[in-house]
Amino acid sequence: MTSSTARPSGVLLWFREDLRLADNPALNAAVSSGEPVTALYVLDEETRGPRRLGGASRWWLAQSLRSLKADCDRVGLQLAIRVGKSRDVVTKAVEEAGVGRVAWNRRYAEAETKIDAELKDRLRKDGLEVESFNGRLLHEPWEVRSKSGGALKVFSPFWRAATARGEPRAPLPKPTKAKLKAGKALNGNSIDELGLEPTKPDWADGLRETWEPGEAGARKALTTFIDEGLKGYAENRDRPDLPATSRMSPHLRFGEVSPHQLWHAVEQARSEGSASARDVEKFRAELGWREFSYHLLHHFPELATKNLQERFDDFPWPTPDPAHRRAWRKGLTGYPIVDAGMRQLWTTGWIHNRVRMIVASFLIKDLLIDWRDGEDWFWDTLVDADPANNAASWQWIAGSGADAAPYFRVFNPSLQGAKFDPDGTYVRAFVPELEKLSARWIHAPWEASREALEEAGIELGKDYPKPIVDHRAARDRALAAFETLKAKG
């Protein structure tokens, strides 16, 4: 295309991690242009660099795409789903649709940003207009800076700087069929052809029973949280036995809801008197941790593989014990709160945030297994496996990250269980072998009397495992390993 040639009319909207119609800046801009809009999603597992989605995330993506496709149909926007290298697929779609403009919402992992930058440059050289938008975060990762203009490595000053930027914008409306001018429909793959869902074996029954992926599911989950979980959130969010968390994380991960929608939804609840300022601020701080994680990912692209604190590069990780790793993954460690969490993860693809910290601490410090091993397992099994949050949170527990919990803070799983699941309700839900054991013993069954175990129908080592390590000895071993780093200065 030469500069003297009139630009073709039409916009190619490239969906990525923004699988929604409401509050979608790229979609809003495409519709507002008044030009015909053609929609595309690309499953790119060919380009080297981007991290391949784990099994649970792939299952979620399939359901979310089905929901998005149906939503697009309802407003007269036909969504084409294609497989291949993003650069090639998008370029070909531009030619087939005959558009003069391309729009997308930004991504932030290094491999994806590189793809986007190269493609943007390539398309512009071909004479197209290319626009990218922030549809994923309250603030761009590079917009929040320290006083000296650099990256922030501690959450509190980061969040102060972020909130000082002012109230996040209001959510954008969902486009109506009357306002949307449909562009040329493209051929594509069916969702079944993508091979995202497990077949032999099909292990996703628990996910199907637990979740409703898609934008409509996100709206329902948000309504439930506002009505039932936001009040008392600040006090109860650490209790896995209570329905006191939002469970919005997988919907955020796939962009079925935006952080702007969440921010303003809880603010509306506060203004209407159904939630306290303390509860709202605590929830917003959790959105802040997500923002902080993306800030870290932007400034430290190797967040999932490299210690932010370089001194931890010399940490003396022993060769992992395969039996210990297997016991942790299967929820057979002999520590009930750990086992409940790991079984919840395997069954539902999600794990309560407090319990995430407990099971991570157990892997890293009780079993002395490298945090990257746990981060990788979560990446495969979580429906909300997020490139920023997952890595930043594992490094936080390991003590190797930004604003990290000190390595010498070692969670005692029995005490944590007794504190945050005092009646054993959570443990009983996921470790049915212990269902009849009293709350007195349920977080430390090895301390129960023979009579208490017999009454509950439990033989340790047979019906439920004995602890695979002694926590006190494991803690001493972990601290001794940490001392070697301190000795090196």
Automatic annotation (TrEMBL):
For this UniProt record, give its keywords in alphabetical order, as a comma-separated list: Chromophore, FAD, Flavoprotein, Lyase
Q: Where is this site: Electron transfer via tryptophanyl radical?
A: W317, W371, W394
Q: Which reaction does this chain catalyze?
A: cyclobutadipyrimidine (in DNA) = 2 pyrimidine residues (in DNA)
Q: What name appears for this protein in its UniProt entry?
A: Deoxyribodipyrimidine photo-lyase
A Gene Ontology MF term for this entry? deoxyribodipyrimidine photo-lyase activity
Q: What residues bind FAD, as annotated? A: Y233, T245, S246, R247, M248, S249, F283, D384, A385, D386
Q: Where is the Photolyase/cryptochrome alpha/beta domain?
A: 9-138
A single Pfam family it belongs to is DNA_photolyase
Q: Does the keyword Metal-binding apply?
A: no
From what organism does this protein derive? Hansschlegelia zhihuaiae
